[in-house]
Write a structure and sequence with these properties.
Largest sheet: 4 strands, antiparallel
Strand content: 35-45%
Number of domains: 1
Number of helices: 2
Distance between the termini: 30 Å
Shape: globular
Length: 98
């Protein structure tokens, strides 16, 4: 079974860590320049407490790779976009706030 959200822009075929799904849905709704977000691997970490945090790490072929931290875990996010790093960081910061 395929689970899809936000008109196919949020590819939800795996689980997403707590607090990140709502932020990603806001990011997609507010930024037409973001083509898709594909959540990746989840790993447990000790220092992921408090609010959701997202750090953009490296450029990939069609956008950026980011790491989301929340609820004792980290998750890779592949963001397909033409936005540059500073524009994407600002968009993620706006989406973090409900």
């Amino acid at each position: 079974m395929r689970l899809r959200k936000a008109q196919g822009k949020l590819k939800v075929e795996h689980s997403i860590i707590d607090g990140v799904r709502a932020m990603l849905e806001r990011l997609l709704a507010e930024n037409p320049g973001v083509r898709a977000v594909i959540p990746g691997v989840i790993r447990k970490v000790r220092d992921a407490k408090g609010e959701v945090q997202v750090h953009i790490t490296v450029p990939v072929q069609n956008g950026w790779k980011a790491i989301a931290f929340s609820a004792g875990a980290r998750q890779e996010l592949f963001i397909s976009t033409a936005l540059d790093k500073s524009e994407l960081e600002a968009a993620l910061e706006r989406a973090r706030r409900p």
